[in-house]
Amino acid sequence: MLTYINVKNFAIIKDLELDLQSEMTALTGETGAGKSIIIDSLELALGARADASLIRAAADRCEITVVFDLANIATAREWLIAQELDSGNECIIRRVISSDGRSKSSINDNPCTQQTLRTISDFLLSIHGQHENQNLLNPEYQRELLDAFALTKPLATKVKDLYGTWLKIKKDLTELENHTKDYETKIDFLNHQLKELDTTDFSVTNIENLRKEQKRLNNTEEFMGNVASAIDLLSENDGAAIIGNLYNTKNQLEICKEIDPKIAAVIDLVNNAIIQTEEAAASLRQNLNNTEFNTDRPKEVEEQLTHIYAIARKHQTPPEQLAEVQSNLKQQLETIKNAASRLEKMQSTLKEIEKKYLEVAKELSTKRKLATNKLNQLISEKMQILGMVGGKFTADLSPNLNNSFSASGLERIEFLVSANPGHPLQPLNKVASGGELSRISLAIQVITAEREVTPTLIFDEIDAGIGGKTADIVGQLLRKLSEKTQVLCVTHLPQIAAQSHNHILVEKVTGLKNTVVTLTTLNKSERIKELARMLGGVKITKQTLAHAEEMLNMVI
């Protein structure tokens, strides 16, 4: 249960502390005193959207701290333990909003996100606000209320998740089907392109070798002439051959050696020169003998390179990248060939998801139908005691158009009502007046709240549009509800406040320089005065006080 709230610098609240008890607590006070602001601060602490404009004037930040006793809330304890945020039977939530718009949150002094706050809040409390009357006209909200009453929220979430999965697979399948619609034509086209590419070696090495060979072939005659001239200069030119001159040089040096032995070293060098020159001449002869001038080969090389360049232009890529183009085409061909297999597998997966969705959705439909019988009975009964004698309520379930799938299940849900006996059932927005809608909303909220396992229920001015006997009945309903869960009720009606076990007065004190919101837990005599104020307005008479005391004594 909620045990403590501390609010600092939020809206008109400077520093406020509130200790809460079990059972039913009423918060009362003049309009604008700050009652609903307390509820707003509680929502902010539990993950609502933050806004720097909420910070009290002249303050640089606001801070909200709430404390829950988890002794009887096993689900919250287990969740906190799983998130490594537990601290025994106490849960302390703190949120700070800075003037620059930044927000910091923590659970048991551990930093956390707003989503974490919203998640833990589902285990801790449920707020029923004054705007739920209008929400009640929304079919989606009506469905949520039915699922809350039927205890099918987890099942509805599972249906929604399965629908999301089914929708994604269906979308992917449609895209794949469109992609493979003309895949036979694509396969033929790719095969044609690859056949053209597969007849030639497009490797960078082969292209470079062809270019070198083309260059060499284009210069063969000149090459052979130059080699022959070199051989002639080395060994075959009479009287001028290099080898012959080297031998003559050697012979002359042999004569000189007899005079100067140091010449022997020079002779060795000349000998080496003779050997290397003879080897060079022999190598050139061999090269010349092996070189044949093939008149067909230059044409062949030219044709191969021309073919390569033509293919490169066709694919708008440099010749050196044709091998990569070839690889990419092969990959595309393989992908398309595998598309049929992927298509079949995806169709099978879609059928499996459809089957699973239908299983869960039909289970949800069955539980919803069972719950509507009870819900219709209970709300219709409550309508009688809330001043709508002869009124009737029905939660109508009708199949989706064409029995189509949806994120919310296989049926549409619409709340129908007949406010007066003999009148046909019609949608709420067509037949319910403001007062009738308020009472129907109250009946639904109280009944669905009875089914919730949330340990704290907060009702924020849900009594708008009612009074008199109806207000007294609503108070009794809330008091009865508080027997099994903590109820916090912001109200302007004395009939409801009188039914509470605890009564807190919210007051706004305006000074020359600031405004302060105060909270006072009332004793019996103070409660009588506050109930009298709520009954009589500005002037409180003895009769009003007596009426207030009688009202309180009848409950106590």
Describe this structure as you would to a colleague.
The chain is α/β, with parallel strands linked by helices. Among the domains are: 1-130 and 461-521, P-loop containing nucleotide triphosphate hydrolases (Rossmann fold), CATH 3.40.50; 185-335, no CATH class; 525-556, no CATH class. The protein is 57% helix and 17% strand. The chain has helices at 35-45, 74-82, 114-124, 132-135, 139-150, 153-180, 183-198, 204-217, 220-236, 242-259, 263-290, 297-314, 322-385, 428-431, 434-451, 468-481, 494-497, 524-536, 542-555; strands at residues 2-10, 13-19, 24-28, 61-69, 90-98, 103-107, 110-112, 125-128, 392-399, 411-418, 426-427, 456-460, 486-490, 502-510, 515-521. The strands form three sheets. The chain has a six-stranded antiparallel beta sheet, with helices on one face. α5 (139-150) packs across α13 (322-385), α7 (183-198) runs antiparallel to α13 (322-385) and α8 (204-217) packs across α12. The model has no long low-confidence stretch (mean pLDDT 84).
Features of the shown structure:
556 residues, alpha/beta, Rossmann fold, 6-stranded antiparallel sheet, 6-stranded mixed sheet
